[in-house]
């Protein structure tokens, strides 16, 4: 592949106004506030979701690989890490030209219009999206093709593109999912220091639902022995219900290679007494034992039923819309 030049940036997307550029191998590299962005021309737009990701989608579209969120449990770390260890959190691959390529692939007679997921390899509304603005042209490409999609993001920046989401939803099914694994902000500060607070994410969920984009809560991750108590689970499901979430889906922490080393190092620092119990729960694998996962799923399902999630007559529908108070950070 030839060297990527700045001219490969998305058509209609202005090059970043700030950030010192240098060419590094096949990518243009810029640094913004300590975040290193490698701009690489997208060679494919629609990609197959690996089965190991356990997502209910076959296809994904990913403007970024890696994420500034620096969450200790994040599977996106596998993409951004590549042995980068502690520096991994500040490295993001920016896939320039993705929207043009997406238009071509969606127009191909071989494409059958399957639903795609956005945000599977890093939050597509992470802070560098304010600079690169890849998402508006991606949403327009999906809307023009009438292709269904689900957007996964926990960032209030998504509200910038509400009009585009509405336009896409007018021609194809569009859904959203906001990750809120727990609502204890002390845990969030320790594990997800760069991510929006659970309250902000729930406000995003409310705002999307109010805008007519059905939005659920991805209760991901449930952290074994840290956020899996009945009280933690109940508080999270109740707050999701109050935010008007249309669904709540629990996903117990996964520890694939890359994530595993990082998370267990964090655990050893913060909760060394839990290490033996994690070893018993995960062994050498990436997922917690099946019985544990089934128990969490049953508890969350029962709480979701109790709080009326997924029913129009839910008792815990919020009394007033937090969306009215919401401004972009
Ligand atoms: S914000 Fe989401 S995508 Fe980004 S590091 Fe955290 S969990 Fe990963």
Secondary-structure topology with pairs:
Blueprint: E1 20-24, E2 27-32, E3 35-41, E4 46-48, E5 59-61, E6 64-65, H1 77-81, E7 91-96, H2 98-107, E8 116-118, H3 129-132, H4 135-145, E9 149-152, H5 162-169, E10 174-179, H6 185-191, H7 198-210, E11 215-222, H8 230-242, E12 248-252, H9 259-270, H10 275-282, H11 290-306
Parallel strand pairs: 3-7, 5-8, 8-9, 9-10, 10-11, 11-12
Antiparallel strand pairs: 1-2, 2-3, 4-5, 6-7
Helix pairs in contact: 2-4, 4-5, 8-11
Iron/sulfur cluster (SF4) binds at residues 67, 69-71, 74, 76, 122-123, 154, 192, 195.
How would you summarize what this structure contains?
By secondary structure, the chain is an alpha/beta fold.
Which characteristics define this entry?
329 residues; alpha/beta; 5-stranded mixed beta sheet; 11 helices; 18% strand; disordered N terminus; binds iron/sulfur cluster
Instruction: Give every kind of bound small molecule, once each.
Output: iron/sulfur cluster
Q: Which strand order spans the largest sheet, edge to edge or round the barrel?
A: 4-5-8-9-10-11-12
Query: Residue ranges: pLDDT <50 for 5 or more in a row?
Result: 1-17, 78-87, 313-329
Query: Termini separation (Å)?
Result: 38 Å
Number of helices: 11
Number of strands: 12
Task: Tell me the overall shape.
Answer: globular
Question: Could you characterize the architecture of this molecule?
Answer:
The chain has 329 residues and is of the alpha/beta class. The protein has a domain at 1-133. Helix content is 33%, strand content 18%. The chain has a 7-stranded mixed sheet with strand order 4-5-8-9-10-11-12. α2 (98-107) runs parallel beside α4. The protein is globular and about 50 Å long. Mean pLDDT is 85; it is low at 1-17, 78-87 and 313-329. Residues 67, 69-71, 74, 76, 122-123, 154, 192, 195 line the site of iron/sulfur cluster (SF4). Residues 67, 69-71, 74, 76, 122-123, 154, 192, 195 line the site of iron/sulfur cluster.
């Amino acid at each position: 592949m030839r060297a990527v030049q700045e001219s490969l940036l998305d058509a209609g997307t202005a090059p970043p106004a700030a950030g010192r550029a240098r060419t590094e191998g096949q990518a243009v590299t810029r640094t913004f506030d300590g975040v290193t962005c490698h701009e690489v021309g997208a060679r494919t737009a629609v990609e197959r979701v690996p089965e190991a990701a356990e997502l209910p989608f076959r296809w994904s579209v990913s403007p970024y690989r890696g994420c500034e969120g620096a969450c200790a449990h994040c599977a996106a770390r596998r993409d951004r890490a590549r042995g980068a260890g502690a520096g991994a959190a500040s490295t993001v691959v920016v896939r320039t030209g993705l929207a043009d390529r997406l238009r071509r692939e969606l127009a191909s007679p071989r494409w059958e219009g399957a639903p795609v997921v956005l945000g599977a390899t890093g939050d597509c509304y992470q802070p560098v999206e304010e600079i690169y603005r890849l998402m508006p042209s991606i949403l327009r490409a999906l809307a023009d093709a009438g292709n269904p999609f689900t957007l996964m993001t926990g960032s209030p920046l998504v509200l910038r593109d509400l009009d585009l989401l509405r336009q896409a939803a007018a021609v194809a099914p569009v859904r959203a999912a906001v990750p809120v694994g727990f609502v204890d902000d002390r845990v969030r500060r320790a594990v997800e220091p760069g991510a929006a607070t659970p309250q902000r994410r729930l406000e995003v969920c409310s705002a999307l639902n109010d805008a007519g984009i059905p939005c659920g809560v991805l209760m991901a991750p449930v952290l074994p022995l840290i956020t899996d108590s009945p009280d933690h689970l109940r508080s999270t499901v109740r707050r999701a219900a109050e935010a008007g979430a249309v669904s709540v889906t629990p996903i117990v922490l996964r520890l694939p290679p890359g994530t595993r080393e990082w998370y267990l190092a964090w655990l050893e620092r913060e909760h060394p007494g839990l290490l033996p119990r994690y070893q018993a729960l995960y062994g050498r694998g990436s997922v917690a034992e099946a019985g544990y996962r089934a128990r969490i799923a049953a508890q969350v399902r029962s709480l979701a039923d109790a709080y009326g999630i997924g029913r129009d007559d839910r008792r815990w529908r919020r009394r007033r819309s937090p969306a009215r108070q919401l401004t972009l950070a």
